[in-house]
Amino acid sequence: MIAALQRPGTRLTYHIRVIEPAAVTPRTLASGAVSGPLDSDMRLTLRTDRAEVEALFQVTAFGDTVTVAGEFLTRRLVGQSRRGLPLWEEDTYRRLLRMAWSDTARIYPFGTGKRGQGGSLWVELILERHFAGGEARPAEAFDLVDSTRDVRLEAVVRPRRARVILNLVRGDTVSGPRPMDLVLEEPPRVVQLVLKGRPTTLVVSLTRPDPARSARARALALDADVVCLRVSQPAVLQPLGTICGRLNNIARQLPLPTGDTLAATFAWPGPR
What we know:
The chain is an all-beta fold. The protein has 2 domains: 4-156, no CATH class; 161-267, no CATH class. It has one helix at residues 215-219; strands at residues 10-20, 27-37, 41-47, 51-62, 65-80, 86-100, 104-107, 122-131, 139-144, 150-156, 161-170, 173-174, 178-183, 189-195, 198-207, 226-232, 241-246, 251-255, 261-267. A hairpin with a 5-residue loop joins strand 5 (65-80) and strand 6 (86-100). It is elongated and about 75 Å long. It starts with 9 loop residues before the first strand and ends in a 5-residue tail after the last strand.
């Protein structure tokens, strides 16, 4: 049950176009798509000179229909202070929309009738689902037609398992890599690493990080792809420490009491 939504099966794709009215015909500023497992979210950022919006879209499938929930954080330039500093108005809101798969939804992230603040822009969103064939990691494709605008799309997937590669490091000496596929919140596992003929036995388990502190980070799920490796010694209750990182193949380090350093690299697991 733990990895049910990320096993081979259904894959979700968000198709999106950012459109601006023009004198003759609407103009596409950017287009793209993000995809991933059925529980994937999409993060959208739009910025103009006078306004910006960040949004997180989430979907819930109901047979032939799907409910789209959007969490929006907006900032609008409303004037200047007596010292000539910009004054911004901030707002948050949430929207729900139910639609059929492959239908087109039109979303006005800045609202309507506010041309001076970017309100004339709208977003066209199409949701599709198809057989995945085992591909679990997210994918993104994006084409920015108007380079004067700041438009960004990101796939947001909360991993249920991760590929973790462990090494021991002391000075210029590095142990052989020990790759492991770990599932979040599964029972701890014992691993042995050997450096210069000296074995080190550790107990490791994969967990999620503590909840984000800021409202913006929580609303936009900025730490969605972060996992943490809890490290301890056998038969010792007090853990040695925790290593947290994104699934981006960048090594994170934890000093050990032995004088060695444990390096952990987190990556997306291969398809099952």
